[in-house]
Amino acid sequence: MACSFRYHKLGTGFNPNTLDKQKERQKGLPKQVFEADEMPDSSSYQDDQDDLKRRSMSIDDTPRGSWACSIFDLKNSLPDALLPHLLDRAPNEEIDRHNEDQRKANRHRELFALHPALDEEEPVERHCVPEVPKEHFGQRLLVKCLSLKFEIEIEPIFASLALYDVKEKKKISENFFFDLNSEQTKAMLRPHIQTAAISTLARSAIFSITYPSQDVFLVIKLEKVLQQGDIGECAEPYMVFKESDAAKNKEKLEKLRGQSEQFCQRLGRYRMPFAWTAIHLMNIVNSAGSLERDTELEMSLSERKGSWSERRNSSIMGRRSLERTTSGDESCSLTGFRPATLTITNFFKQEGDRLSDEDLYKFLADMRRPSSVLRRLRPITAQLKLDISPAPENPHYCLTPDLLQVKPYPDSRVRPTREILEFPARDVYVPNTIYRNLLYVNPQSLNFANRQGSARNITVKVQFMNGEDPSNAMPVIFGKSSCADFYKEAYTAVVYHNRSPDFHDEIKIKLPASLSDHHHILFTFYHVSCQQKQNTPLETPVGYTWIPMLQNGRLRTGHFCLPVSLEKPPQSYSVLSPDVPLPGMKWVDNHRGVFNVEVVAVSTIHTQDQYLDKFFALVHALDEHMFPVRIGDMRIMENNLETELKSSIAALNSSQLEPIVRFLHLLLDKLVLLVVRPPVIAGQIVNLGQACFEVMASIVNRLHKYLDTNQDMHGRNSLLSSYIHYVFRLPSTDPNSPSPDTNSSLTGPGGLGGSVHYATMARSAVRPASLNLNRSRSLSNSNPDISGTPTSPDDEVRSIIGSKGLDRSNSWVNTMGSKSAPWGSSPGSAPETMQAMERCGNRMSSHTESASFLQTLTGRLPTKKLFHEELALQWVVSSGSVREGALQQAWFFFELMVKSIIHHLYFTDRLESPRKNRFPERFMDDITALVSTIAGDIVSRFQKDLELVERLNMSLAFFLNDLLSVMDRGFVFSLIRAYWKQVSTKLYALQNPTLESLRLDFLRIVCSHEHYVTLNLPCSLLTPPASPSPSVSSATSQSSGFSTHVQDQKIANMFELSVPFREQHYLAGLVLSELSVILDPDNEGMFGLHKKVVSVVHNLLSSHDSDPRYADPEVKARVAMLYLPLISIVMEALPQLHDFTESHNQWGRPGGPQGAAVGTSGEETEGEGNSMISQTVAMAIAGTSTASPMSRPSSFLLNSQASRQHGSFSAESSRSLLICLLWVLKNADELVLQKWFTDLSVSQLNRLLDLLYLCVSCFEYKAHVVFTMQGKKAFERMNSLTFKKSKDMKAKLEEAILGSIGARQEMVRRSRGQLERSPSGSAFGSQENLRWRKDMTHWRQNSEKMDKSHRSVRTRAELEHEALIDGNLATEANLIILDTLEIIVQTASVTESKESILGGVLKVLLHSMACNQSALYLQHCFATQRALVSKFPELLFEEETEQCADLCLRLLRSCSSSISTIRSHASASLYLLMRQNFEIGNNFARVKMQVTMSLSSLVGTSQNFNEEFLRRSLKTILTYAEEDLELRETTFPDQVQDLVFNLHMILSDTVKMKEHQEDPEMLIDLMYRIAKGYQTSPDLRLTWLQNMAGKHSERNNHAEAAQCLVHSAALVAEYLSMLEDRKYLPVGCVTFQNISSNVLEESAVSDDVVSPDEEGICSGKYFTEIGLVGLLEQAAASFSMAGMYEAVNEVYKVLIPIHEANRDAKKLATIHGKLQEAFGKIVHQDGKRMFGTYFRVGFYGTKFGDLDEQEFVYKEPAITKLAEISHRLEGFYGERFGEDQVEVIKDSNPVDKCKLDPNKAFIQITYVEPYFDTYEMKDRITYFDKNYNLRRFVYCTPFTLDGRAHGDLHEQFKRKTILTTSHAFPYIKTRINIIHKEEIISTPIEVAIEDMQKKTQELAFATHQDPADAKMLQMVLQGSVGTTVNQGPLEVAQVFLSEIPSDPKLYRHHNKLRLCFKDFTKRCEDALRKNKSLIGPDQKEYQRELERNYHRLKEALQPLINRKIPQLYKPVLQVNSHRDSFSRMSLRKLDI
């Protein structure tokens, strides 16, 4: 048996890649070292930074030319370790071999262990093992009774506890009796009590509550020994006496105690009610609440479900159906509260007339009201202490309600805890799994009002009799507390002097297993005389009644209202009911019913359901062959037995669901028995197959319908699945079942013949190792969990039952033996009989007894049908509703069939026989027909009832999966093919994703078989198979499995889904065909299934990867062969994959050589992580097709535009697909791959390379430890590999936007009723919207809940572990890529077109170097790169020149790595590169130039660049040069030295940049200076200009960035015009003059200009027409961002001719569109534009180094206040030199350095404005003109001659300072040196003139403003004519115009001022007039006031204005006056 399922757990269905498993497989991983993770120690790093800042800031500490010091530095530094044998010349093959060995050593074997499992809902193929059937418990509560004390202690008190539900008006638990009396008190009862059994001494009880609610009360009732007096009298002492007064009342107490002793002696066996109280349970639970509970109460319903199925693996009982029904009671969970100790102080005394339960419910309801009646009652004070807590999982010393011990029960002498039986408030649907047979008798009331004679103190004696003699009373009545276990009678409590008492007793009886007609309950009524009188007996019988236990073979239960007889009943009364009027008997009250009693049975023997009873009775009668049968009032003779049997089977449908579920196991067993062994009735075999099949189908459907919450994710009802899994056995396997002796206890008339085994089940869901399950368990293939043969359990069973122990942890007791002795038979006889039967060839049942005996015993011929055959047959022939019912629950019948097949094979020893001969043809045909019709159903109905079809589809798949284990594989494949055909045909006609999704699920389940690999015949060659359907026996799969070698067949067949491939590897072929169909870009309807189909493949590979059977590499290679076509499928799908490279297109990483800055995490400012919305998505929203990113490597995604139309994959699916690809590449046989690569075309190989390129980006390690310079905290690693949800959502959103599913299609599909998923959702129409998925299964929720709590808080250790895994995954993935590249290189070296292929290889290599890589990978990568260069040197130096540049950059980047191994390898590679270049042409100009350029680019952009490490690498290179003996005689060593020193110089320069990292102006100055240093090397200058542009953009200085780009363009234009003469290209920088006057500095005019044709110069990608266009477009964009739209126009003026020449209408359209936008903005923003604010900043003080005494004009953003820049500079330099060292000079006067403190640093900041001469103003018209190309600025300083700044009007001078800068603003930097300064001094009268002119202008502006602004006008007027204005116009006039100046030089000024005033008054008048027209009536007075002031002013000014200086008017006085009057006239005219 074991052979068949040995590997069961290895099928994907049972081999989930769970977290724990992953962790297990990830043990022992090495930590990969990544530079990205190596963070400088922040504290020391910070100190270094500070030191650097404090050092002198001179740029020129080391002059650029000081070679000496630089060499000195280098010579003294230390090199890294040299690589041994680097300089040896070894043959390439040997190098390759060595590299390969190194690469292959210590690799991680399992790729998938490093890849997080897919985030799927729940994989469809996962079958959860059903829960073991076990006893049902609700939520369990442990109540411990600690103490009970009254104020007085005079007698024993007895207590009981029970739970009541007020709302349901139901008692929901049996009573728990306890007493807390002291030993001496108990002694008072000695004569009446035998020794107390330990079970009755329990003081703690476990209550179970299935339906907790706010209505549950714990009721405590107290009784005492009967005494004279009613309850009130007896309770009085307890209310009166206080404990504190004990001494005072000593005598009274003694007296009371004495009375009590007497009563105890005499009436000790009777009790009376005493007192009661109740506890509202939920109050306790809630107030004892703990944190845990609070959180739980806040949870939503669904979460709490999970939470308590976690703690208490609730029974199979639908925990959720239960919660659904208790709506409104959501907060009632009893599991999470903190244990509470209660002290109850008040008891209510019982009212004798209010003892019934009805009264109790009224009291309880009343208790919940605030003004409870009970509060007003006088209480009995006492102290009862209870502990209430959630019950522990497996409590010790526990007794069941039947008094059986529950393990663990270490010591029988310990006081036990009692489990209290629950009477659930509503039905609980759980099958019986234990034997329980209890009867509860509750006498309720008696009415003796009409009975003559004395009967007052009445008690009822209850006995359970099995005959009529008094001695026949059975000891089956459970004792209460402190007494024996069982008694023969029980007495009810007495209510004193009451003829019609109510009772509240509960008498618990243990029913005998087998009842006869003589069993009955006898009630005897006694009058008890309380007073001792002479001749009065203690008790007098006053009546009798009884209840027969069986009526027509059925147990009698329910409410009875019985008549009571006055005398003893006559002989043989017990068979009759007391209702029958027996002759000659006297009855109380004329035979009326006077005694009410209720009888309740809790039995797993008696069904208490008429339909079930009838069915079982008939079946039993058949078994026992007893006719006639009595059922109810009918006698059934043998001749009408058949019809009765059939009708009873059909009638099962009418039965209640609850008993059906309780007896489910037995019922199904019996139905199966009837199918398998048709009964012989009246000599005829009666075939009941159809009837049984129908009723089974309907029962199964009922269960599903009403217990719908009780299902797993496949819709399998858990009751049914556990039946199949644990209970179902073929009847033939249990020989003893019909013989009466084995089951004697079960075979009473209502008995349950047949193979029923009772047992109790483990309470914990965790199944212990010791669990002995049915043998059948190990057979059923569809159930994963347990296999192995049980040991012979018989003895165990006996010992368990014998010791009364019942072990719930070791559960499911079997009555089966081991295989050798067939199931419980005597070992001797069985085998012979079996053999005899086999020989007869008869299909007999395998009974131990001989056939004839069998016949006589059972009335059945040993005909035996095989259950699976019968089932298949019935199913095939069924129709109508029966067939529909079977389809609804197909899984049940399929699983039954499979289990039956396996049993059959096992018990007939056919498991070893060849599969072909195992089953008859008939059965095979039935199965074929069945599969075919079901497939037909799936295809025809999936649009109508998808829910059903989904279930059906899965059931069918599981069925076929199971059949693969037991039937001929070829046959099963033919079934799969039949299904496939039907679905394909339909799909062909109707492209429907839902159907495709169903087929995927089907395939996934079938492929989850544990022998999936073997089934695919991985070893055979692709030749036609020898037999049509070869069947590999699983036993030999291991040995033969992997032996043959691949012949050299047509290799392509193995890599394509060719016919031979699909025939040979059938299932793998199906999987890959599905993949290729769904990924086909034309198949756009299938777009949403991408994730689903990828996860099928991912899942399979992941399970192969971890499968120990395939651990051997050769074997794994065979497995990988099954998936070779995957490579080409993924290659086809390449354009649709998520583009992981896009995140690299930031500023820092244009793909070309110069700009290719290294993208460490630092400067990828907008990587995937933080950009809000990606460019492609933005474009999609805007409605354009996806924009292709600018700097995509040229060959990547050749036709990206075209193919991207189809919805592309989400990142997650792409990653999964790529990891599958890598797995195949890793494990496939290299020779096979190599052969295939050789056959591929160049374009295909290039596509493969593109794919690898994508893989590199996809699996890049993302450390994201961003480390900013201030040493701010390192951000938590944001891990890219474990895709976080938000990212996923983003991806899904993007997919939805980009996807091909338009809204219209979406709607159409929806209306067709297919529930579409979002495109990346799992399947179309699965999960979410289906009711039966509502809440998968317990464990599903727990895991989710765990996840949630887990995800939020991720510990450091977890993060570290995650980093470890990611690091290893990144390393392994890249090594696989490297292996593949090596194979491609070997392939390429023999092909013709190797150049393009090698170029591609190199590109992938370089790309991988550019990503974050581990040191381990880089080592191998550099080794491969060195080998590649040495094999194909011409590749780099002649063809792929850009690649050479890129390589230099990558190597240099690695040379500056902080990890020494990376540095050693990189320096070695760089040295060899130089050497190789030198050997080709005796100098290595190219490498020299590229390295220099790379270094500058590296230094310019990389933030965390460390020059110290680079110095070491430079030293290493020098060392290699010195040790290189071969080239010692050449110029090579000197050239190397020159290069190294030059690099070192640049480095030193850049170190300074690093110092000034924080000072943006200084940083840009340095960059500017370095760029200037590269004036002769255009490529480098360009690089630095671009670096500057990047820095400016970062700081939002768009105008400056634009200028950098214009300069770059001008530079390119200069050299382009030298290279090629094209009319439409700009001539050089002259063309750009209009854009900026500064641009001429780019002209190439000096002597040392390199000619662009020289090798390696201007070879970058920008020195081309396209490059130029690109730069200009960027410039235009930056200008636009800066708001300088006029400049945009100028830029486009240069661009337009180029596009015109190229006839590029599309570009021109775009440009004109942008121009329109620009001009539109100029118009729109008129008057609202702002460009910048300018300040003069002077630095004084030696601390500033070479900034000392420098003056600059700074350009700051618009509307920067003086205070802001002052604060910024002061703060910045304060931080650098110390705050007390920096001072800002507050005025703008010239600074006298001698007066300043030499130890401090001074900064003077002044606001300046652009200055234009009058002639300039003609051209500078617009706001833009006045703010562009600015070189002159002005600021004014007021002063007086005596040194004060301000004085009176006549002494106020003003100094105007005009500054000229070296370049015009905006420039490529934001501060420019001042090169010239001039001063103009204005005299006081000139100052006055300026002021008056300004005022007049303001007035004119306010007057003519359009639209008019009254407020502004009034402000200006107020300032001009208001009286209060100090130094106002009047004062100015009085100071300067009152007298004619003495100095003739001032005449002109005087006159000018006079004319100003004239103009001024005129303007005032205009303004007043204007104001008058604007004001409302409320301002009339104000206007008048203004006018009055104006006239006053005018009068005062009149004489001053009219006084002319005669000297000025002498010569032409006449004319003048004429003119004057003329002008006045004209003015007047104007005003009219």
Keywords:
disordered C terminus; 6-stranded antiparallel barrel; alpha+beta; 36 strands; extended
Note down, in words, how this protein is organized.
By secondary structure, the chain is an alpha+beta fold. The protein has 70 helices and 36 strands. Strands 1, 2, 3, 4, 5, 6, 7, 8, 9, 10, 11, 12 and 29 form a 13-stranded mixed sheet that branches. β15 (477-478) and β16 (486-487) form a beta hairpin. α51 (1441-1455) runs antiparallel to α52.
Distance between the first and last residues' Cα: 122 Å
Name the average pLDDT: 76
Work out the number of β strands: 36
- Helical proportion? 40-55%
Alpha-beta classification: alpha+beta
- The rounded Rg comes to 51 Å
Helix count equals: 70
Q: Quaternary state, please?
A: single chain
Largest sheet: 13 strands, mixed
Q: What percent strand?
A: 5-15%
Shape: extended
**What low-confidence regions span 5 or more consecutive residues with pLDDT below 50?**
40-69, 289-330, 733-862, 1022-1049, 1144-1207, 1264-1286, 1299-1352, 2012-2032
